[in-house]
């Protein structure tokens, strides 16, 4: 579903701006369809993950803190996705993680 151009135009391009909720390219209808059914990492319906909002908040905070405090650079070969119930990389991912001289917090 994440590669269906009906929900994600140019699905293989890295376009983080597609998740922004404003801006001239924002398409309300596309955003709603995307949010409703384009991915189900937390399940769906009455037994869906009760920890979803908690997990999402943790992810936002952890990622923000990491990029504020460290320069993170991918130094491996471009990974290919492998379907393994969920998509996983086909190789170990190698990064350098360097403390930023200036703390941005
Ligand atoms: C990225 C993190 C997480 C993912 C991807 C995830 C995913 C899922 C999925 C797929 C289900 C099954 C939903 C279904 O049957 O339709 C589930 C259930 C559940 N999750 Fe999570 N989860 C995450 C984090 C958490 C956290 C942080 C908590 C608790 C603080 C949590 C608590 C639960 C509980 C209690 C259920 C069972 C709900 C029920 O059966 O009524 N999860 N989760």
TrEMBL record:
Q: Does the keyword Hydrolase apply?
A: no
List, alphabetically, the SUPFAM superfamilies matched.
Cytochrome P450
What Pfam family does this protein match (any one)?
Answer: p450
Q: Which domain of life is it from?
A: Eukaryota
Which InterPro entries does this UniProt record tie to the protein? Answer: CYP11_CYP27_families, Cyt_P450, Cyt_P450_CS, Cyt_P450_E_grp-IV, Cyt_P450_sf
The entry's family comment says:
Belongs to the cytochrome P450 family.
Q: What is this protein called?
A: Cytochrome P450
